[in-house]
Design brief:
The chain is α/β, with parallel strands linked by helices and 265 residues long. It folds into 3 domains: 104 residues, Tetrapyrrole methylase, N-terminal domain (Cobalt-precorrin-4 Transmethylase, domain 1); 108 residues, Tetrapyrrole methylase, C-terminal domain (Methyltransferase, Cobalt-precorrin-4 Transmethylase, Domain 2), CATH 3.30.950.10; 41 residues, no CATH class. Helix content is 42%, strand content 17%. It has 11 helices and 10 strands. A 5-stranded parallel sheet has the order 3-2-4-1-5, sandwiched between helices. Helix 9 packs across helix 10. Bound molecules: S-adenosylmethionine. S-adenosylmethionine binds next to helix 5, strand 7 and strand 10.
């Protein structure tokens, strides 16, 4: 009678596995963050199971009770979207089950981390998931410094109104992918440098966002003269200074306006 950890769609309702649907159908109870939200998902699949509200505010209190229940009943754990425990409630229940010797069955399925990492087009050989960055303080600075130094790919959950701040705190040439509203109607994957993304998302941004960044940009600081030389090369091949500056900016992460100013001086 295990606890089953069941991932649910991150947008598109079709992104649910047959096994997830069967597990939910067979569960004696479904622990979920928001009973209305999960109720709608289950109704979509014509599944009627008792729902138990389990969220960050009652997690500590409910985890031992649900673990006890999972000894004799089938308990399924879901979150509002994606995989439980991944920046979502569930860790305490998982620990409570492990400590009580209750079997835990983890189903693979949707998570914004993996979808964004693959969609980013950045190297996926070594990747670190940072969850939501702390809003300020030494821990945030430490993590951002790590991205600046380390040639790995970093996956960050970001809120739309903090995206600009985070992008600005990265070296401008950092290759990034801003993955917005994945699997939803207004899905957008913007790939470019941190400087370009800052420009692209200068207006108000909406929706759910995963920021994927390729670290290590600080190790190879772009030589501004070399960048200007690169732009001069494009001009000599017939491009206008403004197009040449834009192209060199895109390729190096240097500011387009600064390259342009130098070119036309
Ligand atoms: N457990 C979830 C998972 O496995 O993806 C993540 C839950 S966390 C509370 C919510 C954050 O995940 C959002 O703020 C956003 O950063 C990211 N996210 C979730 N769904 C997304 C989507 N459809 N597109 C982009 N980001 C998404």
């Amino acid at each position: 009678m295990p606890l089953a950890v069941v991932p649910t769609p991150i947008g598109n309702l079709e992104d649910i596995t047959l096994r997830a649907l069967r597990t939910l159908r067979e569960a004696d109870s479904v622990a979920c963050e928001d009973t209305r939200h999960t109720g709608r998902l289950l109704a979509h699949y014509d599944i009627k199971r008792p729902l138990v509200s389990y969220h960050e505010h009652n997690e500590e209190r409910l985890a031992p009770e649900l673990a006890r229940r999972a000894r004799s009943e089938k308990v399924a754990l879901v979150s509002d979207a994606g995989t439980p425990l991944i920046s979502d409630p569930g860790y305490r229940l998982m620990r409570a089950c492990i400590e009580a010797g209750v079997e835990v069955e983890v189903l693979p399925g949707p998570s914004a981390v993996m979808t964004a990492l693959v969609a980013s087009g950045l190297p996926v050989d070594t990747a670190f998931f940072l969850g939501f960055l702390p809003r300020k303080g030494r821990e945030r600075t430490g993590l951002l410094d790590r991205i600046k130094r380390e040639a790995s790919t970093f996956v960050i959950y970001e809120s739309p109104h903090r995206l600009a701040k985070t992008l600005k705190e990265l070296p401008p040439g950092t290759p990034v992918a801003v993955c917005r509203e994945l699997t939803k109607l207004h899905e957008e994957v913007y790939r470019g440098t941190a400087a370009e993304a800052t420009e692209h998302f200068a207006e108000r941004v909406r929706g759910e966002i995963v920021l994927v960044a390729r670290g290590g940009a600080e190790e190879e600081p772009a030589d501004f003269e070399a960048v200007v030389e690169r732009a001069r090369g494009y001009v000599s091949k017939g491009e206008s200074p403004s197009r040449a500056a834009a192209r060199a900016a895109k390729e190096t992460g240097q500011r387009r306006s600064e390259i342009y100013d130098r070119l036309v001086k």
